[in-house]
Fold this sequence. Notes:
Blueprint: H1 2-10, H2 12-18, H3 21-45, E1 51-52, E2 55-56, H4 57-70, H5 85-91, H6 104-133, H7 142-173, H8 177-190, H9 202-209, H10 218-225, H11 233-259
Helix pairs in contact: 1-6, 3-4, 4-10, 7-10, 7-11
Amino acid sequence: MAVLHGWRAARVTPLGELHAPPRMTAVLVRLAVQVVLVASLWHGLYSHTGTTAGLTEGQAVTYAVLAVLASRLRELDQYAGRDTVLQHMHFGTIVYWYLRPLPPQRYHALRALGEQLYGFAWALGGYLVCLAAGVVDPPRSAAVAGVFALSLLLGQCVLYFVLLTLDQLCFWTVRNNAAMLILIFAQNLLSGVYAPLWFFPDWFITLSTFLPFQATLSVPLSLYIGRIPLSDAFEQLAIQAFWVVALYLFTRFLWRRAARRVISQGG
Length: 267
């Protein structure tokens, strides 16, 4: 029974997408346009130079395109299903999360797992198309591919806990739309979604090393393109694992504190 409830929770958002073909078409068009524009931009930036910030043209284009594809892992329209924490807090229905057979923290995790698996299908499909078209370079070796896959998995775990922390803030702020937009922008900026971190000033790079954001995306992609050598992979994986454990303990503490703020009348 628990497995059945878990499966139903995991497919909440993906089913909303699959039952809306126009939305899927829009996602496909937007993803294709993003890949073309990003690849064209970085090819243009490197048209008169060989190596910049330690990156060749192929590395830069590969990094930028993979960053676009990786963004699909957690970029689903949760608002359409009206099942976000922010919406539940606004409408006073968050109490139902505490009345279901699944604990709220497990429901949240299972739903996120379903979203990431659905997003992974999009990202993998886009990667295979880009690889076949020569838009991105293949991994340099099987070892690089394996380390990248492990690092990407750890990075997605870190990203989940970062986004979970943003959701949990709703228990204290209730209406924090602006704060969440700012934090999501900071996450994308500091994780290297918009541009590799090596193009930023030294103080910015130093600041990012003390935050978990670069562990979500910058590290996996840096390993893929060879910016971080395999000899340094263990250290980077250990840092990612540290953030996974630290954020897990922190969000677990917040779940306990959040439960004390839920009343029977709603949020």
